[in-house]
Amino acid sequence: xxxxxERELIVVVGKGGVGRSTAAAALGLAACGSSRSVIVCETxxxxxxxxxxGRRPPxxxxxxxxxxxxxxxxxxxxxxLRDWMSAQVGSALSRVLxxxxxxxxxxxxxxxxxxxxxxxxxxxxxxxxxxxxGGPTHETVVLDAPATGHGVAMLRxxxxxxxxxxxxxxxxxxxxxxxxxxxxxxxxxxxxxxxxELPVGETLDLAAWVQETLGRDLDAVLVNRCESxxxxxxxxxxxxxxxxxxxxxxxxxxxxxxSRRAEGQAELIADIEESFKGxxxxxxxxxxxxxxxxxxxxxASTLERELD
Length: 308
What we know:
alpha/beta; eight-stranded mixed beta sheet; 8 strands
């Protein structure tokens, strides 16, 4: 099996607010650690990944270099569709179709069309697949997918279009993307979650969906922002005994609450490990005020060790 960080496509999925973009940036840093050409693709125009690494956000469709073989881009479905049509029917006809109001309305209304174009663009940025002669390609593409519901729609879109579309360029392209997504030797699916009940439940549901729909497992689950300041039973007893004498009562209460949170998080992590066949990587909560780049680099170091 190809090491996860060396696969052609790494799709990062997870509930909103779990640190998915930071994880995508960290995966990009870890993947290019062996002198590989890597690009991190976002599906919105917010430019989170370059901002995390201290660079300006790209314009839609623009590729921004982040140093050491790493780049980032924001995929715009409209411009991606124009690029694809130009490759299929030529630039002149592509411009005519692209400027047609009726065609634009059709594209906007077709269920899953924007998701298909977005993930197809990520596919096109992979090794040797550029639609434009001499266009940029990368050994590994990290796709920061939308939040879980929309992310699932994106993963499903190639199969839907391959099944519903008659033989032709759309079906051929959708089948190529689906082949990549369903091949664990070439692609990886990485879920990001927090050690709390709702995100963990959603992650386990996602793992079941991936198995049922793609016929494969998630490759890894990254459990983000885990507390590591738990105390043993004897430690807690000593802390409680010292409350009001050696320690202020408020400090003892904070320590006990932190330990209980850590214990609850450990139970949820154990639930993931029992239900999930792939690798579970526990990522720490960084101290308040830590710069985003330092967090991404710290996570990248952990991923290089854990995802070999």
